[in-house]
Structures are given as structure tokens and as C-alpha cells.
Amino acid sequence: MKIVKLDETSKQNILSGLLKRDPNQYDSYAKTVQEIVDRVKEEGDKAVFAYTREFDKAEVNETNIRVTKEEIEEAVKSVDPKLLEVMEKSMNNIRLFHEKQRQYSWFDSKPDGTILGQKITALESAGVYVPGGKAAYPSSVLMNIIPAMVAGVGRIVMVTPPGKDGKVNPVTLTAAHLAGATEVYKVGGAQAIAALAFGTESIPRVNKIVGPGNIFVALAKKAVYGHASIDSIAGPSEILVLADESANPRFVAADLLSQAEHDELASAILVTTSMELAEKVSKEARLQASKLSRSEIINKSLDNYGCILVADNMKDAVSAVNEIAPEHLEIVTKNPFEDMTRIHNAGAIFIGEYSSEPLGDYYAGPNHVLPTNGTARFFSALSVDDFIKKSSIIYYSKEALADVYKEIDFFAQAEQLTAHANSVKIRFEEDEIQE
Asked: Membrane-spanning regions, if any (predicted)?
């Protein structure tokens, strides 16, 4: 990994490099995605079946596009019992964490005859996109479905591309079943997102679409936003480790590689106050990478988007972290909890040398669907909040409105909205005549 002295130039170079990975920068794909979305909106099932045949080489139709109970039972039986046991424990941790995020309706009644409040309502439906292919990511299935379940969403639909045999990856299907998906459909790519947003003859539309995917999926979510809500337009994975001379270079290198193996576009950055640590981590990263199964991907990721920034002091290091706003942030310093209080922008924060990033990916409980490409400056992790709506409740008695209607009238007149003013005044016309 290249070692760079942290200054304004090197920091800006890092930021501009990371921005190139943003799905919003890939305009060359946007036209193709829009064509797919428009065709699914217009043709429904016909387009979905055709695209599945073209892109996934699988034959689906109205009789087999929805996964059956028999297919689910077959999938569950085929999964390693040890994996099932670990998934159950992970699910329990995820559920317990997200249950603490629940919000409840509240009402504030006052003696003056007013009642104000907020009504919490779960979304009626949500769609979860899960990538297909040879790899299976049951952890992402759990992370997307369980918050919706905890929120109280009644209909949770999973879509995922089938293999050439027309089947869904059994581990993915098992995770969906255990987490509580109510329906699973064999469709992927931009066409799946469009089907969820607009509905087809076989796939009823949903209110919100969440879940990771490739550039076509990301841009399709962007294209349908407004017809359905979305979680975010996620980019490649990121990790940033903030460390000082107390950190173990072997641990730090291993954690950086844990994200670099995701994708050639993944970003792995170390920000440290120790040149000695920087040099040891750089050597250790190459040594460990050479022994790992995805070494080719890791090396390309480190060459293109890996970097070690050496700061003069912790204040400058923390400032750089806040500007980069990483998806995953590990703090491995002498005073990690103190340093954590100065962090304003990060998707998830892992504190101490034994809180490695994969702990959050698989097991601890907090959601691993996190803001990327600097959007941690204004976005949060996927949560129960993503699957609820908040309605304001307003009640005024006649007496309560009588005390304030003239002020409302004055305010409305100031905006030249006379119908607004009339709406409150008309209720007291007879009272004013009698006076």
C-alpha cells in the first residue's frame, strides 16, 4: 500500500478518487437502465421474462417465477446445519439490536384543549433486492429483512436472479425464509427493481425497495425513486482504520484486506500518526494478501483505492476521517472511546483492536447496510426507521382555536393566502356578529 503524508493535497486526491467510484458517475449505463425500467413498466411480466432469459439464461414464467414452499423446504434441507446454527444466532443479535430502534406513537394533551402527537405506521410492503450469481450473501438478506420485520411491515418481498437451472441459491433462500420474507421471486437486475416499483401481473408493487446490487441495480433504484421509496444508491465497500503507534499492524492489515476483497473498486484506507505503523501495515498487507483466495481482487483494490495517510497529530487525522466520511471506521488508538467522540461522519464505528469490521458484517447486530461515497455526512445505516412513516396528529377544541385564530388569520394574510385566512375566520363569524 502506498504511504502518503497527510496534507490538503493528498486529502483532496483521496476524496476525488473515491468520488469516481460513485454509481452516480456512471452515466454511460443510465440510458440502458432507463430502457429496461420503461419496458418493464409498459410490458410487465413479458419484459421481466424476456430480460431474465437474456441476462440470466433462465426460463421463468407466471407459473414458476414465485418460489414455492417445496423449493424453500428443499433449500433449507441442503444447507449445512452449522451454518444454520450460526445464522440463527446472528438473526437473534440483529433482531435484538433493531428492536431497540422501535418508535412509538405519542400524544401530548394540554389543559387548553389541544392535543398534538405523532402516529407511527409501518409501511405496508417492502422489497429486498439480493444479488445472485455463484456467491451467496445470507448476511445481507438478514440485514435487510429483519429491520422490516421488526418495524411491522406486512409484506416483505425478496427478489434475486435465478441460476441457469431456474433455481435460487439455497443459502440465500434459506436466509430469506428464516428472516421472514413473505414472498420470493426469481428475477434480478434493473428489471427486478422496476417490477417492484411498478408491479407486474406476477409481482405486486411495493412501497419501498432496499438492498445491494451492481451498477444496473443502483441506477434502476435511482430511476424508480418517487414511484417507490429506496434506501440509498450504494457504491463499493469502504473501510478506514484510524490508528496510532499502539495498534497491531497485523490486525490493521487484516482488517483493511477484509473489505478490499469485496471488489476491485473497494476502498481501504489507513489514517495514522505513526510512520512506523504505516510501513509495517504496508508490508503486512502484501504478505497477507498473497495467501488469500481473492488476492488478485485485493491487490487491484489496494493499488487503485488503497492508501496509508500519515498525519502529524491525531487532530489532523480525525479531521481527515470526518472529511472522507467512511462507510466502516475502525478506531485502534490508545484512547479509542475519546477519539470516537470527535468523529462526526461514519456509517459504523468499530472501537478497539478486537472489534474488527467483519464482526459487524455478520454477527454483532447493528446493520451492515451503510452509507458509502461520503454520504455518511448526511445518511445513516439501514434501520427500523426506514420501514415506518410518521403522521402528525393535531386536535384543537373550539375554545383552543378561539384563542389563536386571529393570529393565524394575520399570518395567512401576510402571505396573501386569503382562503387560508377564511378557513379559520369562518368558524367564528357568528360569534363575532353576536359580539
From this structure: none
Q: Binding site residues for Zn(2+), as ranges?
A: 259, 262, 361, 420
Asked if residue 373 belongs to a domain, the reply is no
| Known binding positions | 129, 191, 214, 237, 259, 262, 328, 361, 415, 420
**CA Rg value for the chain:** 26
Residue 273: how many CB atoms within 10 A of its CB?
Answer: 20
Strands 208-210 and 238-243: unpaired
pLDDT at residue 134 tops 90: no
| Catalytic, out of 98, 238, 261, 328 | 328
Q: How many Cα atoms occupy the beta-carbon half-sphere of 339 within 13 Å?
A: 27
Binding residues for substrate: 237, 259, 262, 328, 361, 415, 420
CA atoms within 13 A on the CB side of 284: 18
**Domain co-membership, 277 together with 194:** no
**Distance (Å) of CA 57 to CA 38, 43, 49, 53, 127:** 21, 20, 10, 5, 23
Whether 98 is a known active-site residue: answer no
Among the options 71, 238, 261, 327, which is catalytic? 327
What residue numbers bound the domain in which 254 lies? 3-22+235-365
How far is it, in rounded angstroms, from Cα 94 to Cα 365?
A: 4
272 found inside a domain: yes
pLDDT tens digits, one per residue of 309-354: 999 999 999 999 999 999 999 999 999 999 999 999 999 999 999 9
**Is 328 considered catalytic here?**
yes
Q: 55 with 99, same domain?
A: yes
333 DSSP 8-state letter: S
